[in-house]
Amino acid sequence: MALLPVRSKTRLAFSVAFLLWLVAFILLLNRRLAPSAAESDSHAAGQPPNSRFLAAEFINRVEQQQKELQQLLVESRQLAEALRAQSSIGGNKAGGIGEPTSPRPVMATLSPADSLPASIAVLVIACNRPTVRRSLDQIFKYMPTSGPHQFHVIVSQDCGHAETASVIQSYGNKLVHIRQPDLSPISVPAKERALVGYYYISRHFRWAFDQVFLTMNYTAAIVVEDDLDIAPDFFDYFIHLGRVMAQDPTVWCVSAWNDNGKSNLIDTARSDLFYRTDFFPGLGWMLLRPTWLELRTGWPAAYWDDHMRKAGVRRGRACLRPEVSRSYTFGRVGVSNGLYFDKYLRFIELSKRPVNYAAMDLSYLLKSNYDSYYLDRVYKLPSVTLDIALGVGSGAPAEVRVQYNGPKEFVAMAKRLDIMPDFKDGVARCAYSGVVPVFKSGRRIHLAPGRPWKGYDVTWK
């Protein structure tokens, strides 16, 4: 069936709204003119109707009809405004920011020069999982063997686990195997003893980063933990988005991970769609040496990833992340004891579609472009209720904005959408300037705070 043009959709919406209003008005008149059941019974019995009863009954009916009519008019007006607003931004495709629906001014461009270093470390963090072979096999399968960038695999092992060490050494000179020398026990408070694994991990990361950036003198590294699958375009993804990071000081990491990347929450056809986010995603990520030199002075004793999410550490900078994840974790068993795995992580969709990065203009990810284009575009989208946004066949356009007011309302909406509802220092997962995009039931939904936005509130927990 041919798609209606936007103007026709708008006229149709107004016509439907008018017809619904007319039907409701006729029903109201019918009810006002029709005798009530009690009145009919009294006439049938030959008794005169009670005038007070009839008056009260009539008023109740009118008030109920008024409420129903008002609700009908509100919903009709929202749909009409939504279609009119959609026509004003140039169409109804839920393409997202990577494919604008109207011309956008570009205030900054990426330098044509390759700003990434020629040699890039691939730092694999390992401990006591012999299944690190699964990750290493995929790294060597998809890692480019030619081109302007050479990738060097460095496996840093903690724990002193012999079987895991044997697996790593079986790759011979294809990789460098380094071992964390400090295997001494860590003393922690009694209440933290069950979580001591997070202390060992943080100590290991610090040592491994020092080895890569200070001892081996690399200027860029991709961090892969020993329980990750990677997408076929994993390395192309980091090369091209890494160039954005290298040119934009407001970007401090590139992540392969979408925290809300379950298949029912993303457009699986849009592997070419990328975002800025204020939330550090991790799980396959790139950083540059200056970032590590900054981080190492305040590196935490435990919970290093949550440390990266603190406002004072992030300092207003963003990460780049994909619509469709370039990594997938198969590590249900670990120090987190499967936290979030069964409900969220195991459902993350891993990208398998090829992307022609060379043909893409990624300058939209630069902060000056992104803020003026993406955020302005989001706030020009029609604002609807979450009920309308989730309504299949509701008539709402393919891309909408749903406003939330406060943490409780956001959490309630997140649970209905099945996205992760937690905050770290007031930042929701995938949020950028408070806006969290989701693709649900064929519609792009942007959960957005009202304007003017005053920034993240660290008291949101």
UniProtKB/TrEMBL annotation:
It comes from the Eukaryota. One of its GO terms (molecular function) is alpha-1,3-mannosylglycoprotein 2-beta-N-acetylglucosaminyltransferase activity. The lineage of its organism: Eukaryota, Metazoa, Spiralia, Lophotrochozoa, Platyhelminthes. Belongs to the glycosyltransferase 13 family. Initiates complex N-linked carbohydrate formation. Essential for the conversion of high-mannose to hybrid and complex N-glycans. Its EC number is 2.4.1.101. The cofactor is mostly bound to the substrate. It holds the Pfam family GNT-I. The keyword Transmembrane applies. One of its GO terms (biological process) is protein N-linked glycosylation. It is found in: Golgi apparatus membrane. This is Alpha-1,3-mannosyl-glycoprotein 2-beta-N-acetylglucosaminyltransferase. SUPFAM superfamilies: Nucleotide-diphospho-sugar transferases (SSF53448). Residues 55-86 form a coiled coil. One of its GO terms (cellular component) is Golgi membrane. PANTHER family: ALPHA-1,3-MANNOSYL-GLYCOPROTEIN 2-BETA-N-ACETYLGLUCOSAMINYLTRANSFERASE, PROTEIN O-LINKED-MANNOSE BETA-1,2-N-ACETYLGLUCOSAMINYLTRANSFERASE 1/ALPHA-1,3-MANNOSYL-GLYCOPROTEIN 2-BETA-N-ACETYLGLUCOSAMINYLTRANSFERASE. Its cofactor is Mn(2+). It is a single-pass type II membrane protein. Keywords: Coiled coil, Glycosyltransferase, Golgi apparatus, Manganese, Membrane, Metal-binding, Signal-anchor, Transferase, Transmembrane, Transmembrane helix. It catalyses: N(4)-(alpha-D-Man-(1->3)-[alpha-D-Man-(1->3)-[alpha-D-Man-(1->6)]-alpha-D-Man-(1->6)]-beta-D-Man-(1->4)-beta-D-GlcNAc-(1->4)-beta-D-GlcNAc)-L-asparaginyl-[protein] (N-glucan mannose isomer 5A1,2) + UDP-N-acetyl-alpha-D-glucosamine = N(4)-{beta-D-GlcNAc-(1->2)-alpha-D-Man-(1->3)-[alpha-D-Man-(1->3)-[alpha-D-Man-(1->6)]-alpha-D-Man-(1->6)]-beta-D-Man-(1->4)-beta-D-GlcNAc-(1->4)-beta-D-GlcNAc}-L-asparaginyl-[protein] + UDP + H(+). Pathway: Protein modification; protein glycosylation. It is an enzyme of class 2 (transferase). The keyword Transmembrane applies.
